[in-house]
Amino acid sequence: MKKIIFTVLPVLWMALIFMFSAAPADDSSELSLSVGCVIADVFIPEFSDWSDARQEAFIERIDYPVRKCAHASEYAVLGTLLMPAFQSYNKDSRKGDKKRYKKGSYDKGDYNKKSCRKNSMNISINIRKSIYYSVITGVAYAASDEFHQLFVPGRAGRITDVMIDSLGLMMGILFAYILLMLYAGKRSKSGEIA
């Protein structure tokens, strides 16, 4: 069940990114300008007292950074979702060790000493594989997303956006990596095997 949930979440998020990218330029601009207005309201207390012209000028000035932060944030979430998805498909040798321990092929002390080192190596290798697959999948999706935008009215596909998306993706992967390592450390301290 975990595998299904961890697989469905990034797929749903990719579909949401696709929907944002499929919006024509006018709709996309309207959305980012409204986000800029909310940001200005939150962070500038006197914003509502400004003249309409000054408000519009400010919102248009911050529109570009708002858009780029939105790009990076979308892909940070994607990176955070891809890591556990790929990690859930990694095989872990601890299950085999647990079976041997139950069958009595070696005693408890032997199990703890030998398998803990082996398991920590396997966890490390599995997480590296998850990082690799997450990066490949995320960057490929970012490139395909920019290609898709070439066919959307008023939108353009840019290499710089792929780079910004990839940077956001890496931040999400790093965040997920830290969470996975904390979880693995917690499991090993509690003596949990599988």
3D architecture notes:
The protein is mainly α. Helices cover 84% and strands 0% of the residues. The protein contains six helices and no strands. It has helices spanning 2-22, 25-43, 52-89, 94-103, 108-149, 159-190. The longest helix has 42 residues, at 108-149. The two termini are 16 Å apart.
Instruction: Please compute the radius of gyration using only Cα atoms.
Output: 23 Å
Give the helix/strand class: mainly alpha
How many domain units?
Answer: 1
- Proportion of residues in helical segments: over 70%
Order of helices and strands: HHHHHH
Measure the end-to-end span.
16 Å
**Which overall shape is indicated by the principal axes computed on the Cα atoms?**
globular
Give the uncertain stretches in residue-range form.
96-101, 104-111
What's the average pLDDT? Answer: 83
What percentage of the residues does DSSP assign to strands (E)? under 5%
For the secondary structure, the number of strands is 0
DSSP helical segment count: 6
Report the biggest beta sheet as strand number plus sense, adding barrel if it closes: none
Keywords:
194 residues, mainly alpha
Give a short overview.
The protein is mostly helical. Helix content is 84%, strand content 0%.
Question: Layout of SSEs?
Answer:
Elements: H1 2-22, H2 25-43, H3 52-89, H4 94-103, H5 108-149, H6 159-190
Helix pairs in contact: 1-3, 1-5, 2-3, 3-5, 3-6, 5-6
